[in-house]
Description:
CATH class: Mainly Beta
Strand content: over 45%
Shape: globular
CATH superfamily: TonB-dependent receptor, beta-barrel domain
Number of domains: 1
Helix content: under 10%
Order of helices and strands: EEEEEEHEEEEEEEEEEEEEEEEEE
Number of strands: 24
Radius of gyration: 22 Å
CATH architecture: Beta Barrel
Structural class: mainly beta
Amino acid sequence: MATGVTNLGSGGFSLVPSIRGLARNRILILVDGVRLTSDRRTGPSGSFVAPEDIEKIEVLRSPSSVFYGFDAVGGVIHILTKQASTGRLLSGKAALRYGSINGEKGGGLSLQGRKGPAGYYLSFQGVDAGNYSSPKTAAYQAQRGGLRHKNDRGNALCQRPPLGRRLVPIGRLLAHPGLKPETGLSLDGGIKFMTGRLFAGLYGFVYSIDDMIERYLVAERTYTYGNIERGRIRGVEFEVEYFPVQGWKLFGNLYAMTGQSLATELPLNDVPPFRAALGIKAWAGRFSAEFETIFQTKKSVPGPAEIAIPGFSIFRSKAAYRLDSTLSVYAVISNLSDRTYLARPDPEAMEKPGRSLSLGLTFSF
């Protein structure tokens, strides 16, 4: 995940991105230049785009309302999907994968071709999964398009249920018609250092928002909104990549930020705690391997619609091998230490899955 970017929400389709402590309807999401909109209180989500069909994701970590409109006050995330890129009339890729934590079984087929100025790209992706569990409690997660979660506190979420199933309520929102519009001033800057083997970037920012619209938890799964006189978010970010020798890469990033009401000095929602990631990648011939660790401190003083969560550290490893020019396999082990943790301070968030193994195979033609 990009430096300064995290996810918010209880899980599934309710997850939305946060950039530098601003989220929900303050982040503009584009798919191939098309603006995503949503009437949900959590804001739009691009999770309907299959990862297999994404060419790249561009993240603008800075207020951009002057160029993109009011919903880009926190930044822009632009999802660019794959396009027909070959000069052949027909080429493609087939993939299979399996996940141990919930019996996930997935597969996909993509086809593309080009002749002269005309081209096409077609993709068919499917996934099915059963229940998953954290090291201590059970949680439930179904396939894309029908999603259900449950934790030991009894909170549940169901969206787009299969035909004939009852829709479980996901909470209430109390209207506040007297809200004032937000106005703000932002200041951000940075410095980058690049050589043949090293890239490093250090950035800082301060956002000041008058009449900031804040979310409040007034009862169980019941929310409302209100203005605060002035909110301020400030922080620093750092990212680095280093290639010590041929076939090796060290990489990492971190961010630290704070957010509070200047009138009451109370914390704001959606401002993540300190987080750092550090990893190493090696490759030689047809083989590659990667190891990454993520550390996050506790959030002991949550915002008005959040809960306190403890800190955590997790480890992840990945290995891939290319059998020939068309066939490759990979394996990923997530949460190596089998830690129990909450990644987000959402009152309805569930513990993340325990140790899991994912296997995959891809065939290109």
